[in-house]
Please model this.
Amino acid sequence: MFIAAAFVSGLLYSSFNRYETWVWMLLTAVLWVVLTATLSLRLSSAISLSLLLSSFFSIGGALWSLHEAGTGSGRIRVLFERGDLETGEPVELQGRLFLAPELAPDRIYLHLDVESAGTLGRHFKATGNVMIMVPFNDPESRREYDTLSLDYGTRLRIVCNLKNGRGYRNPGAPDFQEILETQGYDAQGWVKSPLLIEVLGDGDRSFVLSKLFGLRARLIAVTLEHFTQPAKGILAAALFGNRYFLSRGTAEAFRVEGTFHLLVISGMHVALIAAVVLWLAEFISDSRIIRCALAFLVMWAYALMIGNQPSITRSVIMMTIFLGGRLIFRTSAGANILAASALIQLALHPPDLFNSGFQLSFLTVLIIVLLVVPIHSRLRTAGAWKPAAHAPFPPRIPAPVKFIAESMFWNERAFRKEMRDSRIRYRLIKSRYGITLNRLRLQRAIVWIAMTVMTSIAVQAALLPLMVERFHRFSIISPVANVIEGLLITALMLAGAIFLLFYLLFGERISFFCAPVDWIGNLIGRENEYLASLGAAAIRTPDPGEWAVSAYFAYFLSVVVLLIVINEWNPFRKGDEKGVLEARRLRLAGIALGATASATILLVGLLVVLHPLPHRFERGRLSLTFLDVGQGDSILVTFPQGKLMMIDSGGRPDFGRYKDGDGDSAPAFVEDRIGVAEAAVMPFLWSRGIKRLDWIAATHGDADHIQAFEDISRNFEITQALKPASLQTPARNSIFERTGGGLNVRSVGKGDGFDADGARVDIIWPAASNPGELGTDNNLSLVMMITYGSRKFLLSGDMEQEAEAELIRTGIDLRADVLKVAHHGSRTSTTDQFLSAVKPAEAVISVASPSPYGHPHQEVLDRLKARGSRIRQTSNCGAITISTDGRDLRIDTFVPCQ
Model:
């Protein structure tokens, strides 16, 4: 355990403090020489231990330095940083597929080990891993792809568009580039057509990996072909690590319940595989060596087939160490097995240290090993107590704990048999419930349920700050849901695995077995819907703010104290070891420490989850933050006394759910993909400590303006929603109807307005009667003028030149200090006449980089510059915040404008 901690410390230190590799290597060699001399001379064990830990610290530093040295100047991510590659520009890549192609709905992903790159007539050697999406826009493109016969090891040349994982540049937004790098990729990209892929032949490939990847692909194809949703999506994820076929509804229900980890291949799956293989191996051989060898072979083959994800690698290493120890009649503490697993995994791949999946996986198992397992062990020994030489007296535990322990672990049947066969007979007063449960043979089920609930509570409580920081979610029903979902998912996995095994042997003749598998899947779906629909099933939690550091320190310190107290708790400690008074003093001190730590955890946990504090803002200033939502609009208005209004929410322009038409136009299957709300808007709101919005306003019905409102309305308290009267089609109005809870919607138009904290919001367009001669829905966008003191902000939605001309003809005073440029800087808006009327000193353009429509158009930029307006784009500056006290104008950007 201490060796692993020293090794990890070395990795961390070296990642933040760069030294030449030879320095670390020399230090490591010196330390090992000194350690060897110390052991030979049999000097102090403390000195030897210090040198050993220092050696592993140095080894960690050396390995990280070697990892950094492997990032050469030709690395793809370095080429992006240096400007040799630009996001979105066509690039010709040549390389080898280091994984099998990964199927997804309407597309497939290629994993390319790059050998060279070229752009604009320049060709150069390059290295790094790239993930490239090949879309299937129609059946013809799928046929074109199939003719390529791409597989693991294929060498190819491909013309694609690359981008790094920059993501949305807003406060609180996840860093997708960091996530991409921890997954082992330098960039991601897409190819417009399979015709832009040229096969160069077969490269180096492992025969074993080729067969394993082929088997996985075939099993996924069989799963998708023979089962229906949600069974096939769950099986593809839980058995083969492909989560692309999870529906959004299914995945979100698992998240709400706090059971999404059941869909991630980890310890439960590996333990189940090992148990099944060892059981089957008993019919093959009586040799323990052969049975364990078969288990090792199947586990490692499965890990390689899935792709060596951190969670499954950790699980397989731990199970290998555990079974290897049993094979030589040795057992080891769970913490040491976990530490050895971390040491091996990080030595093989040091960047895993910063992989969130690796971190949460190891921390979760650490909590189970240090908290759940000791409690289970103490309860078992206390509940099963009988007079013995090592424990002649009953355990010293409170009556409620004694009742729980005996109900779970007292074996009345074994005790009665022992009394019948023994010469010495005696009676023990045990819990009647324990006796009854044992006679009914229900204790194993009760113990499994109780320990599952305890594990869920322990992990959620111990890691609460990390869960809030990363997922902004606290599931109330998680302990119960884990019991129900654990049983159902296990049943589905076993049924699915049995079907797939027999399908490989007998083919279509066992298709009749699909129905029971689908039935279990549908049962999971109905149970998901029910639990997720319960009121307050989960709470979305904002960032705590400035007090987080001190609160989290107190929280984790209390967790450590509680772990120590529980591990030191011995129900059978004799009173005369240090005297009766001393033993009583230690017991009372332990109780006091445990109670204090528990109270601190409970208090800080409630503060973190409930977040009773007001959101963070600068009092007395009107502030508008133009968020980076890619090709879309989203503006947060913070009024001088803290009231909040969100104007538009962003969204994907190609999102088809809100298209005009009768009835529900949503597709039958909606893939679980992170949306603009979760990736850009809500993290920003949470970073400000926001749980409630006073107003949300949709300027018009385009998806890139309103799609994210569905998630925002579900996760934040909304006082009132504003929409233009022109937003009347059922599909677009449904954005406010999907939230499931009585949203107060108000239609507004020209002449409407309201006061907020001393600021004034006026709706100046559209007029009440618009016969439709303005051409497009963009011309019916809500246009707002927000005034505070002498400063004005004109927010023009997506209105185009026809609406601008009509607005000018009304004679309204359009002069404003800040203009939100309409329609992302399209040439269809922002005419000379309109700019003459507005006279903006500052212009903000919300646009993607690169924009799929070429926004902003150069003529619009030229017109703004000719008027002397200072231009800022969210694509160049990230989130742009403009605030005023009614007199001044202050502008801040999330990143320096490029």
Residues 580-610 form the longest helix (31 residues). The chain has a mean pLDDT of 90. The CA atoms of residues 648 and 870 lie 24 Å apart.
